Amino acid sequence: MNNLFILLLVPIVSAIVLCFVKNAGIAKWLALAASLLEIGLSVPFLCAFTPDASVQFEQGWTWIASLGIQFHIGIDGISLPLVLLTNGLVPLIVLSSFGKSYKGNFFALVSFMQAGLLLVFMALDGFTFYVGWEAALIPIYFICALWGGGDRIRINLKFFIYTFFGSLLMLVALVFLYNQGDTRSLEWDTLVALQLPESTQRWIFWAFFLAFAIKIPIFPFHTWQPDTYTHAPAAGTMLLAGIMLKMGVYGLIRWLLPIAPFGVLAYSNVIMVLCVIGIVYASVIAFKQQDAKRLVAYSSIAHVGLISAGVISWHEEGLQGAIIQMVNHGLSVVGLFFIIDILQERTGSRNLSDLGGLAHRMPRLAAMFLIILMGAVGLPLTNGFIGEFLLLKGLFDYNLWYAAVGGLTLILGAVYMLRFYQKAMLGPSQERYIVADIRGHEVAVLAVIVFFTLFLGVWPRAVLHLSEASVTNLLNQIKF
Amino acid sequence: MGAIITLCILGILLLYLGLFKMNKALLPVALVGLLVALGFTLSAWNTDAAPLYNGMVVFDRYALSFSALCIVVTALILLLSKEYFRNISEHIAEYYCLIIFSLTGALLVNAYHNFAMLFVGIEIMSVALYILVGIRKSDFASNEAALKYFLMGAFSTGFLLFGITLMYGASGTFDLGALRNYVTSAETVSPLFYGGVLLMLCGLCFKVGVAPFHFWTPDVYDGAPILITSFMSTVVKIASFVGFLRLFSTALVPLDAFWTPVLLTIVIITLFVGNASALLQSSFKRMMAYSSISHAGYMLFAIVVIGKNSVPSIFVYATAYALASVIAFAALILVKRMSGSDQFESFNGLAKRAPWLAFALTIAMLSLAGIPLTAGFIGKFMMFNNVMGSYNVTLLVLAAINAAVAVYYYLHVVVCMYFKNAEGAHAGHTTMMPAPINYKVVLGVAAVLTIVLGVYPDLLLVLFGG
């Protein structure tokens, strides 16, 4: 059972099967069963994984013989947390849509996207990586544009073309790298061993960076993000914010740092400034939002700004922090978007000025909301604390001032998140709502998230020890 | 050679079938004939590929692979014709025979080794098309298109002939092998020869429809019956490219310092003109016409950067493009039959009325846009790779920008099908007229092939021996 390919096969097969399921009731149970099977199948990999620097469970086949292209996948300490995150969040996302009446095609797209995401996180060949990268984009585009609201056609076209443009730049860089070695190859090992001249690395850096920065998104490439997140269906937003943006950060760590270290060195200050601006700017805007979904969307820009800064800081703490914070951010943002979806469903609005006083009527929700919120803010003993601490430590080692400004994220984050909580849950009760507390699948989803929020807050080594050796190895491997 | 003879006989046979009013037999006979021709083509695969008939034609792997592609695409298009021709004319035998004759010309162009054969092939191919474009006698657009195509075609043939003459004047030969010898061995290549190269370049650019020689393309593609448009934009275009590539790769490579800048300029203009104009179209058919211009630009990359990868990459690209175009035009025929219009609006809500048709068309559009897991991506990857092998990154970035622009208009139709609801006249239709079985077969085969080649392109690449 320790063939990694099976993890890709399950979502693909379930996507094909789900295409033909017209009945909404059957479709959702089938999708849940498939996603639970997938997480169940991931557990043996976690158990068999030895936390050292090596790439494990490798699978490689010749894909296009005449072009020297391999289908090559494997897992190391950096990708394992993200693979588990993907497989762990998808059942939650499927479960969170149990209240809706989506047909099989919706869950088929989710499953197909899961396969694309997993391919990105497992790929050890540039071609494989690029295929996964695009394969994840098509389904999310359809999810957002078919089930979204607002001006969904225009917004999602912008999203698609924006990210596709970034991908094409990455393709240009990959094709260039493909032509550099003695043998035509896009293997990760080969690309890392290329040792390109400094001037080449500089533009390679931008070609990759733009692709990743648009996906993450890093200020000022974020303009597609608030609209897309806000108008996507709840499950789409969770996929986008919870998992998809990690593709970009993962790309930075896996591909950009080792392939173009000189480029990173040359431009790290520029990127750092962008990330720090993004943190402050998005936090300030988040504070002014009335729409809860938009608020969390902007808070996401602030959080990923800090994560990217941690990656670029190029210190072990920064990278370790980035990896654990990706997991944390995935958990908390899925929880927050689900809570917003519940609120909107119960009250018919997600506008903060329409909400208020719900804590009395929904005590269970209020309690879970508070814990997840604290995780997002970074309170000690929740998962966010250790991530932000490590990231700021990395930033601090890089440059004191970036750490000082970036550290504002803790304060500003608390400000806008607590304002969100206060406006939604506390204050005078709005009598016109007749709302019931969360139940059934809603409790299940939030309980899982709350559990991991606390679990990782108390014992972050669960994730950190997986990635530690790989991160150290990555930093040692980069040669100048 | 067997394939060409078969097709000639087939064309005449089809005319006689029409004469004896055996209209029902036309399609089966034509398909059987095409199968036989395909069999002849494939059976010649591993034989010694020396020029035949005093160096007139050569059936090397290059010619045979493209001939097979042309025959298969023609068969797919003919399969679509079952219902189609009966609606626009009584003399349906003429269609079949003219298409077959045009295909014969295409096969000759694929295999020429002598300028005489190039000229004869192009003329056989084009003359049949002049008639086919204008075959709807009562339709002004069709007549206009035929006249435009004829005038432009005659004009470009003039260029071509003039070019051939000048080259002959300089080198004293029509034979590609001898021309290569002349170019490599002559101490100074005569200025006449350079003039000839330029004129040939213009003539061939007219034929493949790249900017700035593209002005006939949108009107002709728009005015011609849809099936004829699909034949023109696939088989005829591919054959013209094959002829183009053969001339430059066999004979003119040593002069590349002379013609590469010219061709490079043409490629860049073509990409921008094709894409920018396609963006502005409100008709799906015209959009496909402009998109065919920009695809011609991408295919020209293979000629700009001639190398051992040129042939496989142009073959994969052409296959992907042809499959996607066949799907697109088949879908257009079905949609137009119901709504009577080829505007984007008539695709509104198609996903609800005909989900599988919409799905196949989406695959085709993604393939044209070059998204991974479709054949179009492999073609684009190989093309980009070619360019990167010999040129700087700037050109590739220009190509990438164009690819990003192209996504906009390819997704336009996807947006209409999935995200917009039908309004007005056909809002009430919840189901569409079920597609005839032959359409289902063609759409299914083409869509599955697009995905299969996108996932496992070695199926094609193995032909060229890696």
List keywords for this structure.
heterodimer, A: 480 residues, mainly alpha, two-stranded antiparallel sheet, 20 helices, globular, B: 466 residues, 2 domains, 19 helices, 77% helix
Protein topology:
The complex is a heterodimer of chains A (480) and B (466).
Chain A: H1 5-19, H2 24-48, E1 56-64, E2 69-75, H3 79-96, H4 104-122, H5 126-147, H6 152-178, H7 188-192, H8 198-215, H9 225-231, H10 234-259, H11 261-288, H12 292-313, H13 316-347, H14 358-361, H15 363-377, H16 383-398, H17 400-406, H18 408-425, H19 441-458, H20 461-477
Antiparallel strand pairs in A: 1-2
Chain B: H1 2-19, H2 23-43, H3 61-88, H4 92-111, H5 115-133, H6 140-171, H7 176-185, H8 191-208, H9 216-223, H10 226-251, H11 256-279, H12 284-304, H13 310-339, H14 350-353, H15 355-369, H16 375-390, H17 393-419, H18 437-455, H19 458-461
Please give a quick description of this structure.
Chain A is built from 20 helices and two strands. With 480 residues, chain A is mostly helical.
Question: What report would you give on this structure?
Answer:
- Chain A has 480 residues and is mainly alpha-helical.
- Chain A is built from 20 helices and 2 strands.
- In chain A, strand 1 and strand 2 (69-75) form a beta hairpin.
- Chain A has helices at residues 5-19, 24-48, 79-96, 104-122, 126-147, 152-178, 188-192, 198-215, 225-231, 234-259, 261-288, 292-313, 316-347, 358-361, 363-377, 383-398, 400-406, 408-425, 441-458, 461-477; strands spanning 56-64, 69-75.
- Chain A has a domain at 266-480.
- Helices cover 75% and strands 3% of the residues of chain A.
- Chain B has 466 residues and is mostly helical.
- Chain B folds into 2 domains: 1-251, no CATH class; 255-466, no CATH class.
- Helix content of chain B is 77%, strand content 0%.
- Chain B contains 19 helices and no strands.
- In chain B, helix 1 runs antiparallel to helix 2 (23-43) and helix 10 (226-251) runs parallel beside helix 12 (284-304).
- The longest helix of chain B is centred in the middle third of the chain and has 32 residues, at 140-171.
- Chain B is globular and about 70 Å long.
- Chain B starts with a helix and ends in a 5-residue tail after the last helix.
- The relative contact order of chain B is 0.09.
- The interface between A and B is medium-sized, with 30 and 35 residues.
